[in-house]
Design a protein that fits this description.
With about 230 residues, this protein is α+β, with helices and mostly antiparallel strands. Helices cover about 30% and strands about 15% of the residues. The chain is built from six helices and five strands; from the N terminus they run αβββββααααα.
């Protein structure tokens, strides 16, 4: 878990407003699939060591990861203390794990916000229990998730609406490994089968950025107001 935090939480995003200049053409390496080094356009990527920020006191020597995938209106600019050959901008998409952890610890799981604890030592002991419990349910839920059938369409009749509406694209998890783990553990206890233990099944580090979300009417209206 600490290794994951070092790799993901340590990445800081630099938002690119109206970025129009090209990616640097020297001092780094082109990592785009198209191989168009030195060009900033959809589908291009670049990484290398740079000096960020113009102020002398705030100047930072770091690695810059630049990436612009299909469907995104702006380029991703991410700085990290990792070496260029060790990092990729796609890892920044895992930042959503942070929000997921907040939800599991609070309203979506252990209800930490209901404790109203003010004593740091008491909170420290509870946080240890929360950490161990989280590892347990995620390991159980992750193993159960890995054993789910890839698709159940084959068992349906040819005329079933699910077959007609299938897109062929993989769908995101409808139930988190955290929630599935709690359900699995509770179900096992209710049946009288005792405690269940799981195991962690690592997934490969992402190589592609998440698909851009479709703009809602509210976002489009806000954008038109800003343009005006």
């Amino acid at each position: 878990m600490a290794l994951c935090e070092d790799r993901v939480i340590g990445l800081a995003s630099l938002h690119a407003h109206q970025q129009t200049g090209p990616f640097p053409s020297s001092g780094g390496r082109d990592v785009s699939q198209s191989g168009n080094s030195g060009t900033q356009r959809s589908g291009s990527a670049w990484c290398g060591e740079v000096d960020c920020f113009s102020g002398q006191k705030s100047r930072l020597r770091c690695t810059l990861l630049a990436r612009w995938d299909e469907g995104y209106e702006e380029v991703w600019l991410i700085v990290t203390d990792l070496a260029p050959q060790q990092a990729t901008a796609a890892w920044y998409g895992m930042r959503s794990w942070i929000e997921g952890g907040f939800k599991d610890t609070k309203r979506g799981g252990w209800q930490w916000h209901q404790t109203k604890m003010a004593d740091p030592e008491r909170a420290e002991r509870l946080w240890l229990a929360i950490a161990v419990a989280t590892l347990w349910v995620v390991s159980v839920g992750g193993e159960a998730d890995a054993n789910l059938p890839v698709s159940s369409l084959e068992a349906l009749p040819e005329t079933h609406i699910a077959r007609r509406s299938a897109t062929g694209h993989s769908r995101p998890r409808m139930l988190s490994c955290f929630a599935r783990g709690i359900i699995t553990i509770l179900g096992t206890l209710i049946r009288g089968d005792g405690l269940v233990l799981g195991r962690f099944l690592p997934e490969p580090w992402p190589k592609m950025t998440p698909a851009p979300k479709k703009k809602t009417t509210k976002i489009l209206a806000h954008a038109s107001l800003e343009a005006a």
